[in-house]
Design goal:
Blueprint (H helix, E strand, L loop, with lengths): L8 H6 L7 E5 L8 E8 L5 E8 L8 H14 L4 H6 L3 E7 L2 E7 L2 H11 L7 E2 L15 H4 L16
Parallel strand pairs: 1-3
Antiparallel strand pairs: 2-3, 4-5, 5-6
Length: 163
């Protein structure tokens, strides 16, 4: 994904003064999703400091759906993706959930505490990750069954198509 952008070597080595993150945005036609995003350069602690976002021009419109898709993709640009979850040891496997041998959850202390509060369930082990869909969906989104229309589920909202 980042190959579609020319990120100056200087940005990759020393960054840009006064910034926490550099976001490269493009409007390039795609035959797939209406938008995508990915971190392109990481710090030593695996935190993204440069990311790319692409929006398919045919899909851009002034509507809440487009704003929601943009916000969702920024979440991915900031590192909401299975590669980063794994690198940062954020995923746990919880056995015997709904008859499944195991499910993947984000189980950091803050995520676990917020999930327990939100779902009013003091024994919840974390927030379940999606296990259906393609490789860009699985473990890179919240499980729609549990999190419904939360921003980082794989759908942009009720009645909306997949991003």
């Amino acid at each position: 994904m980042c190959d579609n952008f020319t990120i100056p070597q200087k940005h990759q080595r020393v960054g840009v003064a006064g910034t926490d993150m550099i976001l490269y945005v493009n409007g390039f036609p795609t035959s797939g999703p209406m938008a995508w995003a990915a971190p392109c350069a990481l710090l030593k602690d695996n935190r993204p400091f440069a990311a790319a976002v692409n929006f398919a021009p045919r899909e851009i419109e002034v509507a809440s759906r487009s704003v929601r898709v943009a916000a969702h993709e920024l979440g991915h640009a900031l590192g909401f993706h299975s590669v980063h979850f794994v690198a940062l040891h954020m995923i746990s496997e919880v056995p015997n959930v709904r008859g499944l041998p195991k499910v993947s959850v984000i189980s950091t202390p803050k995520t676990k505490a917020m999930a327990r509060q939100y779902h009013n369930c003091p024994t919840l082990e974390g927030v379940e990750l999606e296990d259906e869909g393609g490789p860009d969906t699985v473990r890179s989104h919240w499980k729609k069954r549990n999190m419904r229309d939360e921003l980082m589920t794989a759908n942009v909202g009720v009645g909306c198509t997949r991003h």
